[in-house]
Structure formats: structure tokens, C-alpha cells
Task: inverse folding
């Protein structure tokens, strides 16, 4: 069987990944959750059916051609993010897939279509690999990106507990640089944003095998380096889907509660040592008083309604707390906010600087995406001198396309999301006539949404239970 070759599948430079799982991708009106991976470890997991890689149906030639035709008309014809050069390359690859006489299973097709979508180089143009991740075997490690291209083991089964905190170096002698390039070819957008989903590929020998990166779809040799310089290499066998296999995405794995020890997993950070920002994993909307600094801290992990909490009710509670406590300063945490509905937070964001006499600090990270970026833009625009962005760069550019709807391919079951409307937060859509209506009517025009106070959250900080962005805010308010 011929493998997909990542060396031939680099994203186009012009034009914009996403296979972000469990994220809300539509910024305006209503929001549309894409992806089926639950944010908690046991919800909806498939039963175990055997060791290693899970079989995926081989598509007949007729089924393959039908799915490709549906992809062309339902996705390629509607997505607006491709540059002319990228679109031509995408069409060439689709032609090659359609003319192939070889059988193709859903794993190979899903990866190939993800590479085609990634050519748009747009974070909201994507083929979701949730189905493949759910069905494929995964090794008993969970990796999370830190900094520029560093992937650390944040969870491990007991036999691999000595790997906790280790840095990934290679898989089957494939260096991390090549593995990362292969992962980046499956998604579009900024490199740090592409890194957010790379662990789903790294943890799956089945997907790595389909890309020609490892020899065995059921197991691979993983090499990691510990902080003391020692290198460990071990052959790891993939475990099948099951009720104790974590299904959370990488940002959720930062929260110690997401994978409790009773499910057979150990983590780097104990809940007792975690800062407030990484506690209460089941709460997506929360706030706390910070009386020592005359401040209120609002943690928005989603820009939409959360389980058991309506966003409007939550914001009403925050407004009541502002009126009652009259804090001098505000801290708005958007570091784990992957988006939602920009219109639900817009008025709240624009009014906040007028609600306090002091400063407003907004915490950001590469996981800050989609409607969270809109919220950041409205906040910063409302009072540029008093609103200070603290932390790491956000997960997208200031000009991008979004607002599509999912397309499920009939035979393979793969889901594609096209991006049909522009967002321009750099110049307020003044130069374009194809912008999303809410941001055309209430524009954002900021030359930059980069951190005013850059503060990386390193792995050393994480393991020590520190929150460097909050420490930086504390230092500003002393």
C-alpha cells in the first residue's frame, strides 16, 4: 500500500489547520461545535475491540469517487480562504486521488483531505480528524505543546510514569522536526496553532503509518529526553478506544482534573499544586475576587453557553459583582478560550474598560482563537491605553476566513468545514466587501493584538504550579 508522503504535502504560503477537536468554530450567530472528542476522559468513548490499530472500512472506487465529488462541490466550491495557487494545488491533489486505482481506507482518505484543506492556510478551513482519532489506537502517553515546537508528556499510564515531563525527540527514528512538519501539513494557520493538534498525530501509530512515518500501524519506538539529559527509548503499543482512554484535547490536558488517577493515568501536575487558572475543569465560566489587588478575575474558557451555565446569566453575575464590589482593576483570562459566538461577548467586552477606573489585563495564549480573538479585539479597541494584553501570542492572524458549516462525506464519514466569510481585525474590513456582517457593522481595527507584556508559560512553570502571566499582573499592580 502506498503511503501518503508528508514531504510532498507542505502547506501553501499564501492563503491559512484546524483539526482542533471539540472546538466551536463559527464566530457569529449561534456557533457550531465541530468535532466529537469529549472534553472529559470518559464521555462517549468507544468500547475496546482489540489491541493496536483499529480497522477502518476500505472504500470502493465508486464510494471514493462519490466522496471526492461531494468534497469538491460542498467544500472546495464554497470555501473562500484558498489563494489561486493553493486552490490549483488542491485541485491537482484531488484529481490524483480520484484517478488512483488503489483501495483507500478512511484513515488515508481523511489524512489526504486534511492535507488538501490545510493548503488554504486558514485556521477555520479544515477536515476534522476527530473520527480518526476516536477510532485509531493511541499509545499510553499524552503530549502537550509548550513554547516553539516543544512537546512534553503530561499524562502517562503507570508503566510509562517515568516519562512524565519528558520531551519528545523522535518516533521510529523520525526526528521531531519531520514529525512536526507532517502534523503541520494537516492543518492551516500559525505554527503555534498547528502545534495545538500535532499530538493527536504523534500518539497514533496508525496515522503515522498511513503517512509513511512508522513501519507498524500498531506500535512504534518513542524516544524522549528527560530534563537531566537522559534519553529513554521504548517501543509502545497503541491501546484501543475505551472508557479509560483520555479523549480531551491538548488545552484541556493542562487541567489536572481531566484525567484523574482512578482511570489509570498519572499526570505531571497534582491538583493540589495547580494555580487557580488550571482548577475546576468542569467550569467553563467563572470569576473570583482578588481583594489584595482590588481586582476581579474573570475566566472565560468559552465564548458561548457552557454546560449548566448560560453565558448571559454568567455575565449578569459578573456585572452584579462589579457593581457591588467596585474593583479598581480587571483581569480577563482568555487563555483557554477556543471561540464560540462573538456577538454574545461583544457588548460585555466593549463596556468593561468603562466599568473600572484602573487597568484591564487580558491574558492570552496560542489556544486563544476564533471568537475569543474577536472579544480581545473589542476589549483592546475600547481603551487601548488601559487594556494591556499579557501572556503569549494568540492562535490566529488578524485577517482570516470563518463562518462555514460542516459537510459530512457520505461514505467515509469524514467532516469538512469550509470558511465562507472574511474577518479583518487589522483594518476594520474597510478594504473588503466580503466580511462577516457582525464585524462589518461593528468593526475591529487594531494594528496588533500581540501581547503588550509577553510572558511565556514554560513547561518548568507548569510543573512548578506557577502562573507566570498572573504573576506578571500581580507585579504590575503592586
Result:
Amino acid at each position: 500500500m502506498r503511503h501518503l508522503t508528508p514531504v510532498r504535502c507542505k502547506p501553501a504560503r499564501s492563503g491559512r489547520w484546524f483539526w482542533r477537536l471539540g472546538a466551536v468554530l463559527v464566530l457569529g450567530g449561534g456557533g457550531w461545535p465541530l468535532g466529537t472528542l469529549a472534553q472529559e476522559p470518559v464521555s462517549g468513548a468507544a468500547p475496546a475491540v482489540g489491541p493496536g490499530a483499529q480497522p477502518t472500512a476500505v472504500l470502493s472506487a465508486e464510494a471514493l469517487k462519490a466522496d471526492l465529488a461531494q468534497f469538491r462541490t460542498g467544500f472546495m466550491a464554497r470555501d473562500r480562504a484558498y489563494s489561486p495557487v493553493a486552490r490549483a494545488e488542491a485541485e491537482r491533489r484531488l484529481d490524483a486521488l480520484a484517478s488512483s486505482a488503489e483501495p483507500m481506507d478512511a484513515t488515508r482518505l481523511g489524512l489526504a483531505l486534511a492535507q488538501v484543506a490545510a493548503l488554504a492556510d486558514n485556521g477555520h478551513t479544515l477536515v476534522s480528524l476527530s473520527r480518526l482519532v476516536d477510532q485509531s489506537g493511541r499509545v499510553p502517553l499524552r503530549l502537550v505543546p509548550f513554547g516553539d515546537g516543544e512537546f512534553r508528556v503530561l499524562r502517562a499510564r503507570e508503566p510509562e510514569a517515568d516519562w512524565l515531563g519528558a520531551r519528545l525527540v523522535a518516533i521510529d527514528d523520525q526526528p521531531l522536526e519531520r514529525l512536526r512538519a507532517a502534523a503541520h501539513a494537516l492543518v492551516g494557520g500559525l505554527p503555534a496553532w498547528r502545534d495545538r493538534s500535532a499530538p493527536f498525530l504523534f500518539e497514533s501509530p496508525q496515522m503515522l503509518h498511513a503517512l509513511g512515518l512508522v513501519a507498524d500501524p500498531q506500535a512504534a519506538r518513542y524516544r524522549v529526553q528527560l530534563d537531566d539529559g537522559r534519553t529513554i527509548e521504548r517501543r509502545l503499543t497503541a491501546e484501543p478506544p475505551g472508557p479509560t482512554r483520555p479523549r480531551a484535547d491538548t488545552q484541556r490536558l493542562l487541567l489536572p482534573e481531566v484525567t484523574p488517577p482512578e482511570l489509570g493515568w498519572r499526570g505531571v501536575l497534582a491538583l493540589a499544586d495547580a494555580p487557580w487558572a488550571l482548577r475546576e475543569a468542569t467550569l467553563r465560566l467563572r470569576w473570583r475576587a482578588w481583594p489584595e489587588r482590588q481586582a476581579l478575575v474573570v475566566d472565560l474558557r468559552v465564548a458561548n453557553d457552557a454546560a449548566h451555565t448560560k453565558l448571559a446569566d454568567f455575565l449578569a453575575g459578573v456585572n452584579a459583582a462589579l457593581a457591588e464590589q467596585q474593583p479598581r482593576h480587571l483581569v480577563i483570562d482568555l487563555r483557554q478560550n477556543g471561540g464560540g459566538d462573538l456577538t454574545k461577548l461583544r457588548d460585555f467586552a466593549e463596556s468593561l474598560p468603562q466599568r473600572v477606573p484602573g487597568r484591564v489585563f487580558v491574558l492570552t495564549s496560542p489556544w486563544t482563537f476564533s471568537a475569543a480573538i474577536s472579544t480581545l479585539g473589542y476589549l483592546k479597541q475600547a481603551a487601548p491605553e488601559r487594556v494591556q494584553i499579557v501572556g503569549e501570542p494568540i492562535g490566529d492572524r488578524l485577517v482570516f476566513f470563518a463562518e462555514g458549516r460542516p459537510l459530512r462525506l457520505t461514505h467515509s464519514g469524514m467532516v469538512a468545514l469550509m470558511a465562507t466569510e472574511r474577518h479583518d481585525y487589522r483594518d476594520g474590513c474597510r478594504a473588503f466587501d466580503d466580511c462577516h456582517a457582525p464585524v462589518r457593522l461593528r468593526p475591529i481595527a487594531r494594528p496588533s493584538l500581540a501581547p503588550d507584556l509577553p510572558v511565556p508559560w514554560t513547561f518548568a512553570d507548569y510543573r512548578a504550579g506557577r502562573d507566570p502571566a498572573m504573576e506578571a499582573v500581580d507585579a504590575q499592580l503592586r
About this structure: The chain has 14 helices and 22 strands. The mean pLDDT is 89. The CA atoms of residues 389 and 451 lie 5 Å apart. The first helix runs from residue 61 to 76.
